[in-house]
Amino acid sequence: MLFGPFFSVMASPTKVTLQLKWRHQFQFAGYYVAKELGYYRDLGLEVDIVEAVGNDTDSVAKVLDNHAQFGISHSGLLKHRLQGQPVVAMAALMQSSPYCWLVKKHSPIFAPQDFDSKKISSLSASENAELITMLANEGIQPEVVDIGAQEPLAAWIEGRLDAIQVYITNEPYTLAQQGIDYRLVCPKQHGFNVYGDVLFTSQTFLDAQPEVVARFYQASMRGWRYALLNLQHSIALTKRHYAVDKSLQELAFEADQLKPLMMRTGSTLGAMSDARWRLIAELYALDDKPMQEYFRGFMYQPIQQSGMRLSWMFILAIAIILVAVPTYVRLVVQARKSK
């Protein structure tokens, strides 16, 4: 990237914040790589990557309140847009959701209808919407059990719950370490295939700083391409600088589980489509009228116009002139003096 380093020469870096929807782990490795390998810095950005605190996973509110300029959400981001909130989806890093139901290996639960009257843990309507909708669309009403202060996984192991919501990289790793058999019942298996880990910004910030958004997008995608093609390095980097409490084995398990959701044959990294988002709206049973009113502009279009490229090339040309002309003049003066 010929012009990249000149952003730091010509002006101080632009400071922005990326709000994660969970705590540091390989799930966000592409952004760590972009920061630690200098991809953001090369494009004139200073990025603060903030993890979720406790169970506060509402990255949308933080971006809309301008506490962060970028965030990571899920397919439920579309619902926010259709409610009139100015969120803009930049990339869908996971082409399928990593949320699934966890059941015992010999459980009679295989499909949504099998959940009827079964005991499950409480769900977050905002974070795990696809798990709820998968059951609701079939008219299934499981029994939601209040397990108090006990962790859902412990209650599931004890048999107090028939199924719990899981992220495919977390609880399954714990169970594998303990030698406990399990099965996963995932929305994708039953016709409910939605995006996961959607990078987004606000329309307000996009309108005010389109080139900053373009640079952040470019550097982030570069970071993810490197992370997925260099797993050992990106796992080690994640462990060293961010997920310090996780083992390399745990991060490697996570990478193995997530990589197939991100790098799919025939699909560009982070790809989104109008048709897929409209299908997701139907799966979530979102109203068609707001779709017609608010969907336009929901998907970010990376800036590739000649105007922006010209501005970068102009910066490069000015930087070269500022360096080359004084050097040339000095050499000419020295040559004349030596005669």
Explain what you see.
This protein has 15 helices and ten strands. It is an alpha/beta fold. It has three domains: 6-95 and 194-294, Periplasmic binding protein-like II (D-Maltodextrin-Binding Protein, domain 2); 99-190, Periplasmic binding protein-like II (D-Maltodextrin-Binding Protein, domain 2), CATH 3.40.190.10; 304-339. A five-stranded mixed sheet has the order 2-1-3-10-4. The protein is globular. The two termini are 41 Å apart. The longest helix has 33 residues, at 306-338. The protein has helices at residues 6-10, 29-36, 39-42, 59-64, 77-82, 129-136, 152-158, 171-178, 203-208, 210-229, 231-241, 248-262, 274-283, 288-294, 306-338; strands at residues 14-19, 45-50, 70-73, 87-94, 99-104, 119-120, 143-144, 164-167, 182-185, 196-202. Keywords: Iron, Membrane, Metal-binding, Pyridoxal phosphate, Thiamine biosynthesis, Transferase, Transmembrane, Transmembrane helix.
Mind sketching the topology for me?
Elements: H1 6-10, E1 14-19, H2 29-36, H3 39-42, E2 45-50, H4 59-64, E3 70-73, H5 77-82, E4 87-94, E5 99-104, E6 119-120, H6 129-136, E7 143-144, H7 152-158, E8 164-167, H8 171-178, E9 182-185, E10 196-202, H9 203-208, H10 210-229, H11 231-241, H12 248-262, H13 274-283, H14 288-294, H15 306-338
Parallel strand pairs: 1-2, 1-3, 6-7
Antiparallel strand pairs: 3-10, 4-10, 5-8, 5-9
Helix pairs in contact: 2-10, 2-11, 10-11, 11-12
Keywords: Iron, Membrane, Metal-binding, Pyridoxal phosphate, Thiamine biosynthesis, Transferase, Transmembrane, Transmembrane helix
Subunit structure: Homodimer.
Protein name: Thiamine pyrimidine synthase
